[in-house]
Structure formats: structure tokens, C-alpha cells
Specification:
Shape: elongated
Structural class: mainly beta
Strand content: over 45%
Helix content: under 10%
CATH architecture of the largest domain: Beta Barrel
Number of strands: 22
Number of domains: 2
CATH class of the largest domain: Mainly Beta
Order of helices and strands: HEEEEEEEEEEEEEEEEEEEEEE
CATH topology of the largest domain: Porin
Number of helices: 1
Strand order of the largest sheet: 11-12-13-14-15-16-17-18-19-20-21-22
CATH superfamily of the largest domain: monomeric porin ompg
Oligomer: single chain
């Protein structure tokens, strides 16, 4: 027994030593000023590199400050302006250089020629989730007293072949004691992937307005979708939906019918994952004459101060045209967001 305990202690100490070795199972940057950074290279685009670290969150480094680098696994690399993207592992090289290991040999590359580096996201994942909570508050005192309030939630979860997407929001505007805007909405989508890019989407939508004559809008739909890309620089998906729509008006009257439409979700990071451009929404055309067009969409910019805190500017539009009571609402918003 004492011999077994000694062997177990020796193996435990050996494994702990391996875990403590610097750079073990990590990407490494050697900088021109002599510093060295270890972590996970997320992306490099437009001359800015983003690296996730355990000690400082996401670190942003100018690409021309990198002397050489090495990655633990393969990343997607565009090694020159006119070159195709390849999957390769960076191997440490000389000053301003590195080697690209494609599995079929190593080739040298000048770092100044590299146009983009992106770490692909794994298709099959354990449970992961992320999201943002945005809050806007504006108080204007002039000839009239105006107050605007807004909250917006976006939460996504992914597990294996399934993806969940929840969006919800609340907007209220008051002027001199009168309420001009007062509405809330929620959308839930469930995607079932059949390949790495093709999926089937199911979607529930509800919107309630306490001011407009069109008091409530709801929709249930399903259809095929396609994920064009999904990596550390952004994502873009598009789905075509067949839906059952329902409109309820002030006084209790209602209309219902079927509709065909599309739902999209696009986001793109710029400048080392500090600035994001995005747009998401849905457009559909009812088929039974209850309306001519329905559009619910949003576009905006988001600047990340830190991994958690961001500042956003956005424009959203809710349009129902050709119904018994039309709606044409446009909202410009700004505020702070919390990400996780």
C-alpha cells in the first residue's frame, strides 16, 4: 500500500507540473517589445488581433506589434490578399514570420501579408449560452418634458444539434404626463440542425401595444434555414417561414390568416471584436388579405468597452401595412448593454 500511495503521489505531482507549464495547450504571441502573451487567439481582422486570456479577459493587440506566434490548434487563415482561406496551425518562426502547418507540411508566411485569422466555432458543442441585456433611459427637459425607457434582451443557447434564441423588449415614451409609446414584444426560435449549415426553424412571436388601435400581433411559423457562417468574427443565417398570423384590434375585433416570409440574423465584428455591426428581423406577406406587408426589424452598432459592458446605437422598425388598422413605428435608441 505505501508503494501504491507513493506512485499515485508521483503521478499527481507530474500531472500538476504539466498543467503548470507555461504555454501548455495555449496559443502564444511573441511581441516586438519582448513581451509574451498566452491564451486563445480568437480572430485577427483589419490589423487588430483579439486573444482571450484567463488573466485579463479579451486582450486586443495591433497585428504589426506581433513578432511571431504559435497556435495550439488549427485556425482559418487568409495568408495573402489574393489567397484562399486555409485551415492551418501557426508554428513559431523568425522576426515577422511564422510557419503554417496544414498537416501536409509547413510553409513560411510573412505576418505582414496575412489578411485574416478566424477561430472556427465547433459544430457540435456542449451546452453554451450567451446574450445581451440593453437598457436605455433618456430624459429631456425643454418646452416639453419627455422621458423614454427601453429594455431589450437577447439570449442564445446551443447544445449539440439544437439552438435556442429568445428576444424580448419593452419601450415606453411619456411627454408632459401623456404616454406616446407603450409596448412590449417577445420572439422565441428553436433551430434543429440537420447538417453543419442547414436547419429547420420553429418560431413564436407576440407583440402587445397599449396605444395603437392594433393592440396585439402574434405569429406561429416554421420553415427551412441556412447558416452561411458562424465564427469568432460574426454569423449570418437566413430562414424561410410559413406562418399563421393573428391581429387583434381595439374593441375586440380580430383578423387571422397565413403568411410567407423570411427571418434573418446578421452580425459582424470590426477592429479586433470591439465594434459590431448587426441587423436582425422578419418580413412576411399575409396571403389571406388581412394585411399587405408585415416588417419587424432592427439594425445597429455596438461598441465593447469591456468583455461585459458595451454602448449601442440602434434603429428598429415595426410596420403593418394594408391591415384594418396600419402601424408604422420607427424607434431610434441608444444606451448601455451587459453581455455574458
Amino acid at each position: 500500500m505505501p508503494a501504491i500511495r507513493r506512485r499515485l503521489a508521483s503521478w499527481t505531482a507530474f500531472l500538476a507540473l504539466l498543467a503548470a507549464l507555461p504555454g501548455a495547450r495555449a496559443d502564444t504571441l511573441w511581441l516586438a517589445n519582448g513581451d509574451r502573451l498566452s491564451g486563445t487567439v480568437l480572430s485577427m481582422d483589419e490589423g487588430a488581433l483579439a486573444m482571450q486570456t484567463d488573466y485579463a479577459g479579451t486582450v486586443h493587440v495591433a497585428w504589426d506589434a506581433v513578432r511571431t506566434l504559435e497556435t495550439d490548434g488549427r485556425v482559418a487563415v487568409r495568408p495573402a490578399p489574393a489567397a484562399d482561406e486555409i485551415q492551418a496551425r501557426f508554428v513559431r518562426g523568425g522576426e515577422g514570420q511564422a510557419l503554417l502547418d496544414t498537416g501536409q507540411g509547413e510553409q513560411p508566411v510573412e505576418l505582414a501579408d496575412v489578411q485574416r485569422v478566424v477561430r472556427p466555432r465547433p459544430f457540435l458543442r456542449d451546452l453554451s449560452w450567451d446574450g445581451t441585456l440593453d437598457a436605455g433611459l433618456q430624459h429631456k427637459s425643454a418646452s416639453t418634458d419627455t422621458r423614454d425607457y427601453s429594455l431589450a434582451l437577447l439570449a442564445r443557447a446551443r447544445h449539440g444539434m439544437w439552438r435556442h434564441d429568445l428576444q424580448a423588449g419593452y419601450d415606453k415614451e411619456k411627454e408632459e404626463g401623456s404616454t406616446l409609446t407603450d409596448n412590449y414584444h417577445a420572439r422565441y426560435s428553436l433551430d434543429r440542425f440537420v447538417t453543419e449549415q442547414a436547419f429547420v426553424k420553429g418560431r413564436l412571436y407576440y407583440r402587445h401595444d397599449n396605444i395603437e388601435d392594433l393592440r396585439a400581433q402574434s405569429a406561429v411559423g416554421a420553415g427551412p434555414g441556412y447558416q452561411f457562417w458562424d465564427d469568432e468574427l460574426g454569423a449570418f443565417s437566413l430562414a424561410l417561414l410559413a406562418s399563421r398570423v393573428h391581429y387583434r384590434y381595439r374593441g375586440g375585433d380580430s383578423d387571422a390568416g397565413y403568411a410567407l416570409g423570411a427571418i434573418w440574423d446578421y452580425g459582424r465584428y470590426i477592429g479586433g471584436q470591439r465594434l459590431q455591426v448587426y441587423t436582425r428581423g422578419e418580413a412576411s406577406r399575409p396571403l389571406d388579405g388581412v394585411a399587405d406587408l408585415w416588417l419587424n426589424a432592427e439594425a445597429g452598432l455596438r461598441y465593447q468597452f469591456t468583455d461585459r459592458l458595451s454602448f449601442y446605437l440602434k434603429y428598429s422598425r415595426n410596420l403593418v401595412d394594408g391591415a384594418r388598422e396600419d402601424v408604422d413605428e420607427a424607434v431610434y435608441g441608444t444606451g448601455l448593454g451587459i453581455s455574458w
